[in-house]
Amino acid sequence: MNGTDAALIRTFYDALARRDLTAMEDCYHPEATFGDPIFQELEGRDLIMGMWRMQLSRGADLDVTLADVTAAPHAVTARWSAGYTFTSTGRRVVNHVDSLFRFEDGLIVRHHDEFDFKRWSKMALGRPVGLVVGWTPAFRARIRDRARQRLEQTMAAA
């Protein structure tokens, strides 16, 4: 691994901050996979880009800050934050994310994001709802189902 993969990740987050879907898509391998606490597993660049298209269309006030990129022998990690208004409640969220990337043919083939779902739910839903039910498996499943339905609608409209 050299600095090329880390540079690709910086390019990706720069494109995300600019809301440049074409530049973001150019960073992903056609057979890429993506996972996070909400979209647990998306397979293929088209589905991943559908997710980003949906996220960017809903978050008009998205603010992306890349804090750190670290290259390791077989992967790159990144720490970044996304600030935005959660549209369902109108509440401001600042989500701190740890990302892991793997590469094939000089492109991202695996992208996995981790964030504190309980912390996110408290910001997105407020107290007491986010504090009381935001961490429960049933609530997580409901959020995942809604997100997946919105993604399917986004993909059908494209």
Automatic annotation (TrEMBL):
- Protein name as annotated: SnoaL-like domain-containing protein
Note one Pfam family from the annotation. SnoaL_2
What lineage does UniProt assign to this protein's organism?
Answer: Bacteria, Bacillati, Actinomycetota, Actinomycetes, Streptosporangiales
Ranges where the SnoaL-like domain occurs: 9-111
